[in-house]
Design a protein that fits this description.
- Keywords: Membrane, Transmembrane, Transmembrane helix.
- It is rod-shaped and about 55 Å long.
- By secondary structure, the protein is mainly α.
- The protein contains two helices and no strands.
């Protein structure tokens, strides 16, 4: 009975790896969106004086 109390219920190594990958994906997607917004503003500001 005592042995069953010490059995791990969660694989912490795999869980932390998944969380790290998820965090990296979120950071990359955020940076991509920020770059798209910044480049879109530059294009719009360049096009407006030409018209």
């Amino acid at each position: 009975m005592n042995v069953s109390l010490f059995l791990p219920l969660v694989n912490w190594g795999m869980g932390t790896a998944i969380i790290i990958v998820f965090a990296l994906v979120c950071i990359v997607l955020t940076l991509v969106v920020i770059n798209m917004v910044k480049s879109d503003k530059k294009k719009n500001s360049d096009e407006e004086p030409k018209n």
